[in-house]
Structures
1.
Amino acid sequence: MSTTTDGRSARWEAHRQERRKTLVESAIRTIRTRGASVGMDDIAAEAGTSKTVFYRHFTDRHGLYQAVADRVDELILRDIGTVLGETAKGAGLSALDLDPRSVIRAAIDAYLQLVERDPELYRFIVSAPIVGAEKSGNAAQAVASATGKMAGQISDLISAALVDRGNDPAPARLWGHSLVGLVRAGADAWLAGLAGDLAREELTDQLTDLAWSGIKIAWRHSTHE
């Protein structure tokens, strides 16, 4: 392949990625204004294009949902970094040389910041109504995939702590996913008004206390020789 062809291909790929990013940001704005149950017709109309263009870039509704979920993951990791005063984006939580409880708290608070700041976007992620009508997948599978990235980050953090202290890292994956499930359940109850007028910071502290009481065992040294 010639240098000219390589350069043309690189420019086209860069253009394609930029176009995908623009469409995702437009979809997020539409979700915020129209609500979590917004359909593809409205998403395309707000972007000033057609559903065909969206499907060309994302294949189907599931593909668009996943792209939005990936962007939300980036926002959550950014917020974790903001809370910790560190750059979390592009690095696992286990790479942060900080008090582990503060990292857990930051992850919980970043999740709740999304709920507080973008309730409709949060509902879109945890309910995936747009995927419900898609033949290529179902909402439950899509949501599990979308929430898996943070669970994986937490699992890596716990696993690193267990190994460093001579403990079996086997529980790490289950604990990471369970922690995300705990926070999601608390966030859903809070969003539904079941926590009264509890402020986000108070909810963060309560969920951190509950989660840390169990997860802190990962930072204890093994008693085995």
Note: The mean pLDDT is 85.
2.
Amino acid sequence: MSAELATGLAAEFRAVMAGVATPVSVVTTLTDGHPHGTTVSAFASLSMAPPMVLVSLDRGSELLARLGHGSVFGVNVLGSDQASLALAFARKGSDKFAGVRWSDDAGAPRLAGSPGWLACTVTQLVEGGDHVIVLGEVQRAATTAAAPLTYHARTFGTHAAAS
């Protein structure tokens, strides 16, 4: 494929994917007692028996460098009022947890106020282009009633029914 065609395909692919509404989550882990995390929109349920999820992380992700087979990670499914958390954890740097309330829940940082929580153990890392897909077996799950934060058309929002 020529460079011109590849560039056009990449632009069209980005446009198509911008039209897909995705949940917004912050994936977290602890290393030597210190919390680490990053915002992801590529997160999905994988299996019910056993309960498993998949998370896609950029190969250059600082969080990915801290995960290996058997590692514990958390998935904080954000609520519609947590766009500021999504932005804070999307940036580079080591001070993402500054001013953020969190607790250790099953070995991973759980962000206060997140309506969805999963504590997982890494079962496999799968290469996928410029990302690595982290497969995790769910060890703990918790939820509260709240509208989800979604990302669609390069904008945060929610797709919960209006009350």
Note: Residues 53 and 81 are 24 Å apart (CA to CA).
3.
Amino acid sequence: MKVYTKTGDHGETSLYDGKRVKKDDIRVESYGTIDELSTVLGFARNYIEDEKIIEIIYRVQRELFDVAGQLATSNDSKFPQKIQDHHISFLESIIDDYSAKIENINAFIIPGTGKASASLHMARTVCRRAERRILTLSTQAAVDPLLIKYINRLSDVIYIIARYLEKELKYVEFKK
């Protein structure tokens, strides 16, 4: 199988359900940012030594394929693997678990005092951008509210694990 198809040479691509759209369509931007997020999470895994966190990231990366698939399908009935409540519950359990292991969650820190935490903070910012792109898409097309909720919780998961992995905390001081 060849990697190139030449069908995108004029700035269009096919969605999962076969519909052709411009490559800069907000739907493509949305699932493309999810792909970027998965890639950044894969990069971050290389700096993480905690096996439990590595397993969490692998699971999230797998679920992000479903998120991208939902976003890449204009006809919701054509993509069967949808984000559901149990996916969100899993993320919330991670947030609760790791929140209990750290202190000063409500303080601003300068992110990235180690490679693991720095790479996760990068993933967090990509996740938040993905959420913004998906919200823009939702103003133009139907987007499953559970998908938006999932991405919102995921940014919290990435944040809390990054905070947990910080080598030291460098707090931001606000001067008056």
Note: The first strand starts at residue 12 and ends at 14.
4.
Amino acid sequence: MPRLTVNDRPVEYELDPQTPLLWALRDASNLTGTKYGCGNGDCGACMVLVDGAALRSCLITLEEAEGRFVTTIEGLSRDRSHPVQQAMVAEQAIQCGFCTPGIVIAAAALLQRNAAPSQEEIEQAIPNLCRCGVYPRLVRAIQRAGRVERRQERISAAPAPGIDPEDAAKAVPAIAPPEPEE
């Protein structure tokens, strides 16, 4: 059984070693922030950090991930406090949000290597596809996150995740639980 460390926790998957890491994360570990986009490595929606490098989890098998350290968007920062997450919100570089986890992971890996990337370096390091076309705002967000990492700037915190289900049901009646039958 493949063993690896996911979000700082040791995990042993009782899955075929040829299973793509993407499906182990989503289906076995319920880490659904890692998205399935194209399945062939073109879009970057499934990007995770593997030993600190941004890799497409649809292209890595569990066998290839054996013994490695994997960080998903959930492990990067549960409270959205990572500078890239903060800057993405501050620069309004998120629209539909489907590609956002993969972009944040790729940007975090870039800033680990280079906290002051140029626009060209960002464009090279972020291969992710975004149907909403947020690319100019994305470049600004990554440069801003770099300034935060270099302690040249601060960003007010984005709201913490997790709305209470009862509050969500009040705001969106369609998701309210059905009334009990008498």
Note: The helical segments are 21-28, 62-65, 73-76, 83-90, 100-113, 119-125, 135-149, 165-171.
